[in-house]
């Protein structure tokens, strides 16, 4: 089962064409990252207090179907770790009828806020702060 969070499109998030502004898709993915980390046992505030913070390095969106005011979507979060200092946090924005509206792929690192450098093993540090990736599917 994939973890998701519901979001309803608000009228002030629309562009001149009447559909969701492209930048808001990034915001929806950010909501999913923050809430997903919390659901998996790792609050971002706790990370920051401990001197680390997730940092976005790259984000790519594939737009599939438009969203309009009042549409409710589910935004999921899937974390993918490999060896190295970076990891992926990917989201799919899906309408209630199952139509995929957008796919968002993000590359992140975990920054040591004192050294201002990425930590060598972000998965281990996040696990040490309670992150249970199995909650996120």
UniProtKB/TrEMBL annotation:
Listed Pfam families: 4HBT_2 (PF13279)
GO molecular function, one term: fatty acyl-CoA hydrolase activity
CDD domains documented for this protein: 4HBT
Keywords in alphabetical order: Hydrolase
Annotated protein name in UniProt: Acyl-CoA thioester hydrolase
Organism (species): Actinokineospora cianjurensis
């Amino acid at each position: 089962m994939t973890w998701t969070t519901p979001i309803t499109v608000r009228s002030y998030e629309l562009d001149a064409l009447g559909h969701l502004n492209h930048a808001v898709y990034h915001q929806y993915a950010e909501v999913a990252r923050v809430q997903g980390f919390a659901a998996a046992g790792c609050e971002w505030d706790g990370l920051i207090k401990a001197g680390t913070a997730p940092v976005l390095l790259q984000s790519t969106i594939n737009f599939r179907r438009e969203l309009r005011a009042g549409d409710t979507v589910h935004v999921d979060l899937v974390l993918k770790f490999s060896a190295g200092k970076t990891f992926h946090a990917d989201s799919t924005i899906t309408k209630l009828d199952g139509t995929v509206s957008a796919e968002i792929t993000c590359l992140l690192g975990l920054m040591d806020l004192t050294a201002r450098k990425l930590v060598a093993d972000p998965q281990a540090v996040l696990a040490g702060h309670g992150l249970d990736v199995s909650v996120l599917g």
